[in-house]
Amino acid sequence: MSMRLGPESGTIFVTGGAGFIGSAVVRELLANTDCRVVNVDCLTYAGNLATLSDIAQSKCYVFEQVNICDAESVRHLFQTHNPTGVIHLAAESHVDRSIDSAGDFIQTNILGTYTLLEAVRTHQLEQGQFDGSGCRFLHVSTDEVFGSLGREGLFSEQSPYEPNSPYSASKASADHLVRAWGETYNLNTSISNCSNNYGPYQYPEKLVPVVIDKAMTGQPIPVYGAGQNVRDWLYVDDHARALIKILFEGKPGRRYNIGGNCEKRNIDVVKAICNILDELKPLETLPNRETLIRFVEDRPGHDYRYAIDCRRLQKELGWSSRETFVTGLRKTVEWYVSTGGQDWVQTVSTGPCGSGRRGLGR
Fold first, then answer.
1. Model confidence pLDDT, tens digit, residues 23-78
2. How many CB atoms lie under 10 A from the CB of residue 6?
3. Where are the alpha helices (DSSP H) in 39-88?
4. C-alpha span between 338 and 17 (Å, rounded)
5. How far apart are the first and last CA of the chain?
6. FRET label pair with 62: which of 15, 48, 105, 262, CA 20 to 30 Å apart?
7. Which positions are annotated as active-site residues?
8. 239 — phi, psi (to 5°)?
9. SS3 call for 138
10. What does the alpha-carbon distance between residue 26 and residue 244 come to, in Å, rounded to a whole number?
11. Do 193 and 255 form a contact (C-beta atoms < 8 A)?
């Protein structure tokens, strides 16, 4: 595998582009590159075109409603648009849902990735590109494939795989497929493994938007276990910039970890959100929102700690995060509190998502 993509141009597929991270990548590509962007999304509960209403009319943007598991439709996309790169984000991603409905994760995350890889391979053969110079394929994965850390240490690109949930097992499987297709068929592949993302447009089932929603309206705030689980937090726009860096400048066949260098206990994240909301929109009926915190039954197999060593990304590609947790979290809360944020939450929450507790395994 030898060639890179060259200047930041060409046609880029973003699978899952109507989702949280995918939409950030679409916006970043349109704002800061010369790329034509094709958003490939089947619009499940977590994908909504309202997330991209601000760029929908761009002349460099195309939306294709396609399920990545549909091999015929995916092949047609490659023939129609002739992509020079793919940033593969389409996935089932919520751990609690994977505990209750693992089959959906096997289907989308494993078989969907296989279908895309086969489409890239076939496209490369049709174009006579046998030297690894064809369509670049970046598979966006998670630090959860590495399992759980103790109180010390960081996940590196050499960390062994020890997934502990159906979600992380499905993503680990996809990682292995991407590596194998790169090695066996000489595809131009890369893999990224990121830490916990947060920011605007995150579907209201993950920790940060759930806490914001509950705290804003004075509802009890559920915190799993004792809230001692530790995560490394990465602002979504910083992640988007990293992915574009990897796509255009990363070494083929290379793996890159992406983290925010920002470890926080879940309980401290919850309290920080409460404090920002107390400042922005105080509740007359409560002295402060921390009194809303309720500890609930923990998730089965809940990994204790994740933390990312992203020095390879920093040294090789010159990437660094722009947001600290303090600045990023305030931006996030301010967006959800805004009229636009509230309207978006209302729009995406009207689908078949449900709001009950998931992931208890029974």
1. 999 999 999 999 999 999 999 888 899 999 999 999 999 999 999 999 999 999 99
2. 9
3. 71-81
4. 23
5. 47
6. 105
7. 143-144, 167
8. -65, -45
9. strand
10. 10
11. yes
Q: Structure tokens of 58?
A: 């761009």
Q: What is the greatest pairwise CA distance in the chain? A: 69
Pull the structure tokens for residue 178: 């991407």
Closest listed residue to residue 94, CA positions, set 348, 351, 307, 359: 359
> Strand order in 196-198's β-sheet?
196-198, 230-235, 263-265
Angle at 264 between CA 262 and CA 268, to 5 degrees: 140
Give me 5's structure tokens.
Answer: 């993509």
Spatial CB neighbours of 276, under 8 Å, sequence gap ≥ 6: 329, 330, 333
Phi–psi pair at 280, nearest 5 degrees: -80, -40
Nearest Cα to 107, choosing from 184, 173, 194? 173
Residue with tokens 């923990």: 298
Instruction: List helix spans (H) across the chain.
Output: 20-32, 71-81, 95-100, 102-105, 112-126, 166-185, 207-216, 236-249, 266-280, 311-317, 325-337, 339-348
In this structure, the number of other CB atoms found within 10 A of the CB of residue 230 comes to: 18
Token reading at 175: 């990682």
pLDDT tens per residue, range 177-218:
999 999 999 999 999 999 999 999 998 888 999 999 999 999
Residue 237 has phi, psi (to 5 degrees) of: -70, -35
The residues that bridge with 232 in the sheet, in sequence order, are: 263
d(CA 260, CA 320): 9
Number of H helices, E strands in the chain: 12, 12
3-state secondary structure 259-292: CCCCEEEHHHHHHHHHHHHHHHCCCCCCCCHHHH
Ramachandran region of residue 111, left (φ > 0), alpha (ψ -120 to 50) or beta? alpha
For the chain, give the number of residues.
362
What's the token pair of residue 318? 């010159």
H-type alpha helices, 127-250: 166-185, 207-216, 236-249
Structural domains of the chain, with CATH = 11-198+233-264+305-328 (3.40.50.720)
Average pLDDT estimate for 246-268: 96
